[in-house]
Amino acid sequence: MKLLSVVGARPQFVKLAPIDHAARAAGVDHVIVHTGQHYDPMLSDVFFDDLGIAEPDVHLGVGSGSHGVQTGAMLSALDAVLDAQRPDWVLVYGDTNSTLAAALSAVKLHVPVAHLEAGLRSFNRRMPEEINRVLTDHAADLLLAPTQVAVDHLADEGLAERTVLVGDVMTDVLFQVRDQVAGNPSPLVAELGLTPGEHYVSTIHRAENTDDPERLAAIASGLGGLDKPVVLLAHPRVIAKAAAHGIELTQGSLIAHAPLAYPDLIAAVLGSAGVVTDSGGLQKEAFLLRVPCTTVREETEWVETVELGWNVLANTAGEIAAATARPRPDETDAAPYGDGHAAARVIAELQTRA
Ligand code: UD1
Q1: What number of other Cβ atoms are within 10 A of residue 110's Cβ?
Q2: CA of 351 relative to ligand 1 center, distance in Å
């Protein structure tokens, strides 16, 4: 079988790692296409190096732009690549502009396309990611769902026949990296001279939190007012928006820091008092590491984390302060994100249908 993965943004490289390993273990010819949506080394190259992913076979070098410019540039470049490669399957990941462009290019060329992490919904149509997910699910031939909730959403939209529950590949990679870093001190704690267990790890990068200056200023000041140091692992987008509007990302308890490589991020979360984020992946990673999470959003796709008490949605400074100070949630052995072997199941499903 010839499998062609299209990736472009940081969370997709994390998901690509277990897929690339499982594909190679199964003797699958795996072609990796990098759209170039993320190009800073700390958002791209370090993931390939640290997670042992093969170098991309094709790099489209698309870079940043408005949604239409970025997605359109990917689309026009991908047609030629898919025509030349003619894989048995194109695999697209998650909900970025790279996901939508690849799904659209493949389906129009009649190349079978599978969507990994299908069926997630926030039901917030102002999020670009929600539009990308819905359109990708309806274009794809095979929907690889991470959770039962995702399976149910797809059934509600008439897509049950194309859906398979495989589990979450982020669990696969997280468990491996957790075991690698377990017992080692967090490099971030050492670098900043923090007391282990006495800081929060934060990421804020979503358009709905960064693009409105009032909202971003309120979040920065809310984080700055927390009871422990808050290390903001600042995505270039939040740095650019804060600079444009004169908002300080280092104030009070808040310390802006460059993004971390994946193993260092996991070590930092493991050694923290909690996570404050708007990232989808980090909400789940915190849950899987049993670190309390506060999510700075109106809703989440990962509802299991909230239902099990490990994640709380908070939007105002007061809500964020109350959520981070809450008592540790009840322990649970629930495993809504699978058993850490989702990638092998994905490859097996694709091979059966190739
Ligand atoms: C994208 C995804 C988002 C995902 C996130 C993960 C879409 C619509 N959004 O958001 O779902 O959660 O990736 O990080 O696809 N920039 C750099 N260097 C880079 C990349 C971006 O400086 O390597 C800056 C540029 O100013 C760019 C901005 O960040 O305009 C936004 O980048 P973009 O890829 O458009 O979206 P993200 O915010 O990264």
Answers
A1: 9
A2: 32
**168 Cβ closer than 6 Å to some ligand 1 atom:** no
Choice from 7, 12, 34, 37 to test ligand 1 binding pocket (greatest atom count within 8 A of CB): 37
Q: What 3-state DSSP class applies to 233?
A: strand
d(CA 330, CA 187): 29
With a 6 A CB cut-off, is 128 part of the ligand 1 pocket? yes
- 3 state SS of 54: coil
Ligand 1, atom 17, lies closest to the CA of 236
Stated pTM of the model = 0.97
Ligand 1 and 10: CB distance under 6 A:
yes
The full DSSP string for 228-240 is: S-EEEE--HHHHH
Rounded Cα distance between 302 and 280, Å, is: 7
pLDDT tens for the chain, 354 residues long, are 999 999 999 999 999 999 999 999 999 999 999 999 999 999 999 999 999 999 999 999 999 999 999 999 999 999 999 999 999 999 999 999 999 999 999 999 999 999 999 999 999 999 999 999 999 999 999 999 999 999 999 999 999 999 999 999 999 999 999 999 998 889 999 999 999 999 999 999 999 999 999 999 999 999 999 999 999 999 999 999 999 999 999 999 999 999 999 999 999 999 999 999 999 999 999 999 999 999 999 999 999 999 999 999 999 999 999 999 999 999 999 999 999 999 999 999 999 999
Look at ligand 1, atom 15, and give the residue with the nearest C-alpha: 96
The rounded distance, in Å, linking the Cα atoms of 230 and 232 is 6
β partners of residue 92: 6, 115
Residue nearest to atom 26 of ligand 1 (CA): 237
In a mutational test of the pocket of ligand 1, which residue from 235, 241, 260, 262 has the highest number of ligand atoms less than 8 Å from its CB?
235
Q: Is 205 a catalytic site residue?
A: yes
Tokens of 191: 């670098």
Evaluate: CB of 38 within 6 angstroms of ligand 1.
Answer: yes
